[in-house]
């Protein structure tokens, strides 16, 4: 079995309400986040014993207009759980932001994913970064936009705001993957990541999906794409058929992407996002795909993202714990180092970024228009 020494692994946990969408008078609980807070310490200990190294995670906080609408403040989760978040940071974890460009439409009683309105997207981005700075006195350790959205203007705005790492890009994924989410209306288009780079790069100011020709022009913003894997590595046809019966809406969207040239069709890549929420016939198959993906990189690394409802949703929790249990039995796990995004870049020799917290830039968060 092929062994690779010191593979940094970034586990990004998107800290969100349990429900994706909700009305202004029915805010969703955060029980998934509370469950993940309880799951983290024993998982951290198991990984430390397994790898012989401290295990660090990333926690990306929902700070955006939807949170402000439902809970009275965009920084609700940062304020309510501040002591727990400070403890996580003291243990070496990264604390980032995970805004969504969702807006409540009172007339239609739906949540609008307002990706077509650049001013709205900009205001959500500035609200997230600026509010984080006001609460914590520093810029977020990383950024990861919600609902798979990213654009060149947004990436350039993140650079201007002093953000140093983004984890939004999901190589192999086409646009508007979740656009049929019940209770939502989507405008514009989310990121088209089908042919995005699969390794870390400094985004070009002219095209965020292309590495900067000058290596970044002195800018300190890195894109760390999530890990994708060869499509042939994914669950068998019989297993996929069972999942399609269980998730007909998502399966229908996947079929549309495969037959429509504008959304995928003949230009579909040969790889897909290696998602930890997928059910695998054998958990070891996931890790075989992961380590194969790592070896394909000039500087091997792995990066995954999960929502905090992984802690409260029975199926998601079972899927995640089964994968982690399988990792504990995999001899290749000794080669892993669970690290923050900045630590991963440093281990890959891609950055001189240290673990020192960058000071907050002079950011005044915008109040999103209603």
Shape: globular
How many distinct folded domains? 1
- Could you state the order of secondary-structure elements as H and E? EHEHHHEEEHHEEEEEEHHEHEHEH
Number of helical segments?
A: 11
Kindly state the number of beta strands: 14
What's the overall average pLDDT, rounded? Answer: 87
| Main sheet characteristics | 5 strands, parallel
The class by helix and strand makeup works out as: alpha/beta
Helix content: 25-40%
What's the helix and strand layout?
Layout: E1 7-15, H1 31-51, E2 58-61, H2 65-71, H3 76-80, H4 82-90, E3 94-97, E4 102-105, E5 110-114, H5 118-136, H6 152-160, E6 165-166, E7 184-187, E8 203-204, E9 207-211, E10 222-223, E11 228-230, H7 237-246, H8 248-259, E12 271-273, H9 283-295, E13 302-307, H10 314-328, E14 336-338, H11 341-347
Parallel strand pairs: 1-2, 1-13, 1-14, 2-3, 5-7, 6-10
Antiparallel strand pairs: 4-5, 8-9, 11-12
Could you walk me through the main structural features you see in this protein, from its secondary elements to its overall organization?
The model is unreliable at 237-266, 353-360 and 362-366 (pLDDT under 50). Helix 7 (237-246) crosses helix 8 (248-259) and helix 9 crosses helix 10. The protein starts with 6 loop residues before the first strand and ends in a 23-residue tail after the last helix. The protein has one domain (7-347): Uncharacterised protein PF12979, DUF3863 (TIM Barrel), CATH 3.20.20.510. Strands 1, 2, 3, 13 and 14 form a five-stranded parallel β-sheet that branches. The protein has a three-stranded mixed β-sheet with strand order 4-5-7. The chain is built from eleven helices and 14 strands. It is 34% helix and 15% strand. It has helices at residues 31-51, 65-71, 76-80, 82-90, 118-136, 152-160, 237-246, 248-259, 283-295, 314-328, 341-347, and strands at 7-15, 58-61, 94-97, 102-105, 110-114, 165-166, 184-187, 203-204, 207-211, 222-223, 228-230, 271-273, 302-307, 336-338. With 370 residues, the protein is of the alpha/beta class.
